[in-house]
Amino acid sequence: MSTALLVMDVQRAVVDLADDGSGYLPRLRRAIDGARAADIPVIHVVIALRPGFPEVGARNRALTAVARAGLHVEGDPGTEIHPEVAPLPGEVVVTKRRASAFSGSDLDVVLRARGIDSLVLAGIATSAVVLHTLCQANDLDFGLTVLGDACLDLDPEVHRFLTERLFPQWADVVTVDDWLDAVAR
Question: Where does the Isochorismatase-like domain start and stop, copy by copy (predicted)?
Answer without folding.
Answer: 3-178
